[in-house]
Amino acid sequence: MAISLKLNGQTHQVEAEPGTPLLWVIRDELKLTGTKFGCGVASCGACTVHLNGEPVRSCQTYIEDLEGAEITTIEKISESRIGQAVQAAWVELDVVQCGYCQSGQIMSAVGLLSENPKPSAEEIDDYMNGNACRCATYQRIRAAILRASEIMEA
């Protein structure tokens, strides 16, 4: 099936079978590899992208549901003020260990700060709960989100 979607500000015409996850369209068809495959069942968050401004798991978001949708991936997130603050905080606090989950973590953090620019540590933990980090950098992730909030306020 042919579908038109807006990815990172550009309209793309893609051809994919119904039931194809957005993740595979992003990675295989559009060759953007920052969005990662983790579990395939929307439990780990590695594949998080923004769909019409909201974080979603691209491994369980199907192409036939996306006609005319606006999708943002990690490759474009730094163009937003919140994305810049989150990425700066990630670097400043040296959050990354292996890095595999970090694009999903960042996309979720941007989603959180878009909804709540001054979250508490508990609100961060609740919001980020669906993002798994095998290296267990959760304390650094929380600290970076708090720091990004401060950066945004400055």
TrEMBL record:
Record bears the keyword Zinc: no
Keyword set, alphabetical order: 2Fe-2S, Iron, Iron-sulfur, Metal-binding, Oxidoreductase
Lineage top rank: taxon: Bacteria
InterPro entries named in the record: 2Fe-2S-bd, 2Fe-2S-bd_dom_sf, 2Fe-2S_ferredoxin-like_sf, 2Fe-2S_ferredoxin-type, 2Fe2S_fd_BS, Beta-grasp_dom_sf, Diverse_Oxidoreductases
2Fe-2S ferredoxin-type domain sequence ranges: 1-77
TM region(s), chain numbering: none
Transferase as UniProt keyword: no
Cited PANTHER family: BLR6218 PROTEIN, OXIDOREDUCTASE WITH IRON-SULFUR SUBUNIT
Protein name listed in UniProt: (2Fe-2S)-binding protein
Organism field: Leisingera daeponensis
